[in-house]
Amino acid sequence: MPGLYLHIPFCRRACTYCDFHFSTSLGTKDRVLKAMARELEERAPGFDNGPLSSIYFGGGSPSLLEPRELEALLDRVRRLFTVDPEAEVTLEANPDDITAGRLAAWRQLGITRLSLGTQSFREDRLRFMGRAHTAPDALRSIDLIAKAGFRSWTIDLIYGLPGMDRAEWDEQLTIALDHGMPHLSAYCLTVEPRTALAHQVANGTVVPATDTDTAAQFDRLMDRMEAAGFLHYEISNFGLPGHLAVHNRSYWTGAPYLGIGPSAHSFDGRTRRWNVAHNVRYAQGVEEGARYWEEETPSPLERTNEMLLTGLRTTEGVVLSGLPVDVLEEHGDVVRRYVEQGQLVHTDGRIALTRTGKHFADRIASDLFLVP
Ligand code: SF4
Question: How do residues 89-117 score in pLDDT, each as one tens digit?
Fold first, then answer.
């Protein structure tokens, strides 16, 4: 079932590792929100894929919007689209924006799921990452959310930080689990080009973690989460039964989704479209009726590679007969090799990563890529 993504491109400050599209100046907020409302109006009629099963406010930092601004967007969505009564409605939130009053307001608006950008419960790590919140904010917010009565909630944590050891990573997971967290997204710190972190690494002030350390932390993550009863349903995602994220699954399974706002991506099952990652150029494009997006229709071969990359990250893996191009004909030897090495399973026409294979998901997918 289809999903709707709304990108709120504003943050209080720039985290050192982040390469998402956002601005720390709120000067264009009203203009961008108005343009998003208009984009919704213009694109809703062409998005005819059945009732929405998920609505996702991402960014950026959607939690810095006033509840009335979120309400205006949600009202418009509900007027323009048929929304499944059980739809998942997620709001990404930062710990420094969490108050009991805001949580109550968000629930009132129909937000069913909160995604909290915790990243770490330690002050030194939060300062290192340039986060706007403090360690007490992280603890206080998770406490409040656990009691707020949302249908589900999740937190993000980052491992693979320079110098992180097993005791530190264990402590982070223990704090999260002790608060009854029903879902976790855990990401390994990556050094993205043109970020402050990339600059720090280049000038030698930061030494990235070793592959051995990050692999050990990923193993520990899987052990702890499995022992706590979580399903490891995607490389970076763990959920208790009944708490697996609906929205992200549309990205992994090839379901159609509509992306609204600067830099937002859309896929209608055939064509991909992405809006310009610039707040003023986006708003101007919408206001003037000029083109503010690019699009492309992936070839069957490109679509196959995309499906391998995303599908292999999931527990279900990839149904080979569902791929536009026959991968076994091209790369049967590669599949056999990874099966022999214990990194892939190939049963009932499906390939999926083993626990060992999860360490090498991107490499295995790229070895299976089809080359024109
Ligand atoms: S709050 Fe999120 S989107 Fe904003 S800079 Fe930090 S990581 Fe990036």
Answer: 999 999 999 999 999 999 999 999 999 99
Does the residue 259 lie in any domain? no
Query: Which of the listed residues 12, 13, 20 should we mutate to test ligand 1's pocket, taking the one with most ligand atoms within 8 A of CB?
Result: 20
Is the CB–ligand 1 distance for residue 11 below 6 Å? yes
Q: Bridge partners of 247?
A: none
CB atoms within 10 A of CB 19: 14
Span 45-57, pLDDT tens digits:
999 889 999 999 9
Three-state secondary-structure class, residue 154: strand
In this structure, is residue 272 part of a structural domain?
A: no
Q: Are strands 272-275 and 257-260 parallel, antiparallel or unpaired?
A: unpaired
Ligand 1 pocket check for 62: Cβ under 6 Å: no
59 lines ligand 1 (CB under 6 A): yes
Residues 306 and 218 in one domain: no
Domain count, the chain: 2
**Cα angle 58, 246, 183; round to 5:** 80
Q: How far apart are the first and last CA of the chain?
A: 31
The candidate with the shortest Cα–Cα distance to 94, out of 55, 128, 60, is 60
Average pLDDT taken over every residue of the chain: 97
Cα of 13 vs centre of ligand 1, distance in Å, is 8
Q: Is 93 in the pocket of ligand 1 (CB under 6 A)?
A: no
| Domain coverage including residue 9 | 3-251
Which atom of ligand 1 is nearest the CA belonging to 13? 5
Q: Whose CA is nearest to atom 8 of ligand 1?
A: 18
